[in-house]
Amino acid sequence: xxxxxLRGVFEKTIIMWRRYLFNSLSGLxxxxxxxxxxxFGFRSVGAAIDVGDTVEGLVVGYLVWVLAIMAYSELSWSxxxxxxxxxxxxxxxxxxxxxxxxxxxxxxTLVLQLAMAGVMLLLMLITTGERLSLDxxxxxxxxxxxxxxxxxxxxxxGGLALVYKRIQAFFQIVQFIFIAFLVVPPGGSPLVQFLPxxxxxxxxxxxxxxxxSILQLEVVDLxxxxxxxxxxxxxxxxxxFRCERVARRDGLLGQY
Amino acid sequence: xxQEELRLDTVLKVKGLTKTFRRRGRCVSAVxxxxxxxxxxxxxGLLGPNGAGKSTTIKCILGLVQPDSGEVEVxxxxxxxxxxxxLRMMSAVLEGSRNVYWRLTPRENVRFFASIxxxxxxxxxxxxxxxxxxxxxGDWVDVPAMELSQGMKQKTAVACALARDTPLIFLDEPTLGxxxxxxxxxxxxxxxxxxxxxxxxxxxxxxxxxxxxxxDRVVIIEDGAVVVxxxxxxxxxxxxxxxYRVRGSGRIDGETERQLREIFRNIGLPDVDDDSFLLEVEVxxxxxxxxxxxxxxxxxxxxxxxSQDEPDLERAFLQIIGREEGVRA
Lengths: 256, 329
Fold this sequence. Notes:
The complex is a heterodimer.
Chain A: H1 3-19, H2 21-46, H3 54-85, H4 88-92, H5 98-128, H6 136-163, H7 168-183, H8 190-193, H9 198-208, H10 219-250
Helix pairs in contact in A: 1-5, 2-3, 2-5, 3-5, 3-6, 3-7, 3-9, 6-9, 6-10
Chain B: E1 10-23, E2 26-39, E3 43-47, H1 54-62, E4 69-74, E5 77-78, H2 83-87, E6 90-93, H3 106-115, H4 125-134, H5 150-163, E7 168-172, H6 180-195, E8 200-205, H7 208-214, E9 217-222, E10 225-231, H8 232-238, E11 242-249, H9 254-263, E12 266-272, E13 276-283, H10 288-298, E14 302-308, H11 313-320
């Protein structure tokens, strides 16, 4: 990736984040309040029974969901927002190609999202009083591989947004479908492991709750995680490219 | 009247460009077999009524819309095959789009769009700042675009296109929605780009005054097809005619009108009543004006004022696309 492009996009992302600071922080606060409701509700119900590692599991699962939502929203909504703002066509005029500009954008926002997810994790740990293993060497790659399929889904919906402009409602529904993907037990069927977030969440729990290192995880599981990430990303890009072709054929890039 | 001229300084060559959109089961022909060229350091105007296909043509050239057929060459390179390479040489301000981020200031916008063009903004700070000042944004560089006037926003969009530092610039309706003062400033800026910086500007507009004042050459488009490709001066002179408007008092009766029609090919009486009139007469040679005066004097008609119709691009345009019947015969 071109350094000048990356620097320019990073600069813009940080400025935008600062301009929307209240928005970003209120989003984070809302997510934290939802977590508190879940946690205290869960504790009052679960107090009578032995909850074991469930609270720690809740923290890990919520962390994955928060990061997934941020990553997914950034990709799918940004295409729609750029089209609405009239800047999408200007992106397409970059000699680097729209996809590299978008990739630079996603990379720059990922850095901010990881930082925000870190803050969220800290708040959750303080609130619950739990302790988790935070071996970054293991956690970070697993976290990235876990959310990678979400980028694939984001690309798919972003592509569809290029052609069918009014699909915001569908965007919101998908955010809640991710919760279902997270809570289904991965052992039930091999197909379940193929759902975005599912296997990654399970492996992250092994590392963050169980204290395992990434090197101690099953190679088959890691291979599967990698495969799921690759398949969703490839499918997402494929759908995006296809939609982009349709949008260029029908002159829809600049329309909203 | 389409020009087919081979020149060494050809910057843009469009040949046989065709685009048909399918909308709700209907085929709409937006661009039909369009061919034209733009040369280095000129301002080329794409002139046509709304919906003529100007914007689609520009978007096809830029690759934002996929044409059905035709060729586009930018500095001799096939723009369909080598799109990215050609985008290094093209920038655009597109009509109907904001083109810039409203949350960012002009300075931030300019830096961002220069970056995605691959310009090292840290080394080009002076150029970018100069650009903002040249466009009169000097006092507004740190104000978010959303707080600027429409004219300032449009200037910011132009600044962003110029920040990309390309030799070929497309400006789609650049003066649309601007106040008179800003529109005049923008026209000056466009001439500066061509004359001082030797850049090629392809400008689309349905505003005749803008095209007449800034364009060296005009391609008139109607229903997606090129109907005329010629220099602005040629177009104006082509339709230059000696049309006089005579206002006076007295009655132009049937006999007077008959005498006038015997001598003059084109006469018109757009405003006439019993004791005053407005007469339009086209004369083939200047001396014929004496004949006109003789007839009016002989019929006891008093001439109160006389003016000559100035030729302009608007009249040429209207005649070319057949929307003006001319002076009533």
